[in-house]
Amino acid sequence: MEKKKRNTASVVRELVEPIVTGLGYMLWDVEYVKEGAEMVLRITIDSEEGIGIDDCERVHRAIDPALDEADPIENAYRLEVSSPGIERALTRPEHFDFCLGVEVEAKLFAPYNGMKTIRGILNDNFEDSVVIVCGEDAYEIEKKAISRINTVFNWDEIQ
After folding, report:
1. Tens of pLDDT along 30-80?
2. What does the pLDDT look like over 97-113, one tens digit per residue?
3. In 3-state terms, the chain is what percent helix, strand and coil (to 5)?
4. Rounded-to-integer distance, Cα 100 and Cα 146, Å
5. How far is 121 from 138, CA to CA, in rounded Å?
6. Which domains does the chain show, CATH number per domain?
7. H/E element holding 55?
8. pTM
9. Cα–Cα distance between 154 and 139 in angstroms, integer?
10. What's the CA gap between 96 and 150, in Å, rounded?
11. To 5 degrees, how large is the angle CA 72–CA 79–CA 34?
């Protein structure tokens, strides 16, 4: 079942990405997931200026007719368009490139140098690994060793 969800998301990504980029946004992610009793198709968008509710509505209105026409999903679903948020998950190669120089927190499957969590600046992105700099130390971590990696927002800076 997980494979079908991934395939659905890939098909939808191919369909909506040209529409989203044509409107001047970046397609951050596409998820097709079960939430409670319903299926949700979540389209996540971003831009250099950030994303507001009007941006989400604009993209929703643009992709809804294309999804209806192509009909890539057999079952009923709820369409959501949203921002990736301040502390966003990095899941695709372009996410890592986009977030170079940004503070991240990586949760690891197993300890690396005695740590299961590494927080620092995302310094490099390679095909199979990333480099996170923590103070004077740089750690090259294989992507397959990372269970989750998110950007970190410094809440103290907004006060």
Report:
1. 999 999 999 999 999 999 888 999 999 999 999 999 999 998 988 899 999
2. 989 999 999 999 999 98
3. 35, 40, 25
4. 17
5. 9
6. 2-82 (3.30.300.70), 93-158 (2.30.30.100)
7. helix 53-70
8. 0.77
9. 21
10. 10
11. 80
